[in-house]
Every structure is written in C-alpha cells, then in structure tokens.
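Please, structure for the following, as tokens.
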Amino acid sequence: MGSGLRVLIKIAIPLAGLALSALCVWIAGLRGVSIDPAVQLLLIVSGGILTAVLELVVISAERNYQHEMKAKTWAITHRAEVELENLRATFPRIVQDSYSADADLYVEYFVRRFGELAREIIQAADSGVLRVTHAHAMSIDNVLAAFADDQEKILRYVWPLEPQEHPFADDATWKAYFQRTVHMTRKREIKEIRVLFVIDPRSARNDAELVDLFAFFKNTRSLQCKLLAPATYRNVCNDYSVPQRYEDFGIYGKLLYCGEGYVPEVVGEYTKDVTSIEKYKALFDTLWGGPDAEDNPSTAASAVEISELLNDRRSRAAVGGVDEPEEH
C-alpha cells in the first residue's frame, strides 16, 4: 500500500465518522425531530467507535500485505542464499588443494567466475537490463511467467524470416518457445499472440517453406500474423530510436526482450523497465497497424499439427503423410 494512499485513508476515516454523525442530526432536523443531547452524544461516540474500527481494519490489511511481501522476498532471497552458502562451504576445499598461492588453475578459474557473476548482478541491478547468451535457452518458463500478473496477456513479437528456409530449421530452443506459447493460448494463459513476420510479402506468398506456417496461424484460434518488408521495419525502428544491433524484439507481459543474434548462439537483452516496455509496445502497434503491414496471405482451410509444423517439409515428405490436425 502506497504512503500517499495510507495518508489519505487516515484522513478520510475520522472525517467519515464525523460526517455520519452530522448526517444523522441533519436528517432529524429536516423531519422536525429534535434530538436529545444524550442521543447526540451517543451518535458522536458511535462515530468515534466506527472510526477506530475502520482504522484497525486498514492497519490489519496493511500489516498482512507487508507480511506477504516480506515472506515473498525471503523465499526468493533464501534460494540464492542456499547457493551462496554452498559456495562458502566448498570453495575452501578448492583452496586447500591448490598448488600455488596465486596461480592455481582451479582457484583462478572460480575466482574469475565469481567476479563475472558479481559484475553481472551489479549491472542488472543498476540498469535494469539483463544481457543473456546461451542462458536464454534455459529460461523459457521464467520468461513466460511474466504474463502471470499481466492484465492484457497479449504476446507481441517480431520474427524475421529468411526466404526459402524452414522457419524453425534445427533451432530446438525456438521450437520449444513456439510450442509453449501456443499451448498457453489453448489454456487461456495468453489471450492472443500477434506476430509480425519481417520478410518481403511478395516473395513470402509463394514460398513453399512458409505455407504451413501461414496456414497454422490462419487456422489456429488466438494466433494472428502480418507481414512487413525488412526495409520498412528498419525505417520505423529508426524513427523510434531502436539500436541497430537489435534484430527483433518481443513483449512478454511485464518483460521486454531485444534480440541481437541467434547464430552461433543467442545474444540479447531483457528489461522490466515500464517505460521501455511501453515504447516497444507502441512501436509494435505502429508497425502492426501501419499501411505497409500485409495480412496473412494463407487461404488454407486447415492446418497441420504443430508437431508437423516444427519439422522441415522435406523431412516430412521423406516419411510421407501427416497427422490429423487438431481442433482449433
């Protein structure tokens, strides 16, 4: 509960008690009924009691809220403390086995790792930005958990596509992300997914590698997509002062991810900064609603199973046939 709200409540409660007493006297006066002084005193006392009760209710609610926040903070901190305690308990064993006071391979390796981690934590705490590489592949559920308290629950992201290439190729991480988010729409954990494919719409319409992808979006509830030419995408991004190093971005509720590259490893930055999230949300909506964004070109009446979509069309042709599509 904010300090400003607490002050407002503490002022409002006594005034409410006095107002109730005055209201009773006023109504009696309108009806021509005189109120005995003893009754007036009783009304005033009742108003005071009501004020005290309401104050107790507010104090109790505030304490419960503070207790819940402390418990939550303790639980999160405790997880880290367990790991730190393990380090404190075991690192001395590494030191004891060292063969040099200042050049032992094991000691130097872990001391440098400690320093790198400390600097990374300080940088994230000071800037609010978490820079990731391969760790991105291990954090699917952590990223998507940012939708838990989000009211809108609309996933927006940009997806650059390469002509004549399978959209998932051999990227196990991206396959897992896509499959997980589609599953979340079916469970209503996400209300809608909006994807802006960055590719020349003219070449994409006849691209055999993208037929199933566009059909899947057209025939799957809660999935929407549009196509935008790369040059247009970059020009609008420049208008919003998006750094050139960002190839794409995604808005996961209360979390923003800006990708810098995916080959040979994932490189990008996360932020929880509300201003940055709103900026990129406005950018996405501008791109999405702009005159250059073209609708899904698919005219297919059905879609393949998601498990089939994630595999290369040529691989599927080799084994022959597909499963029956799910109900959408």
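The chain has two domains: 3-78, 134-319. The chain has a mean pLDDT of 82.
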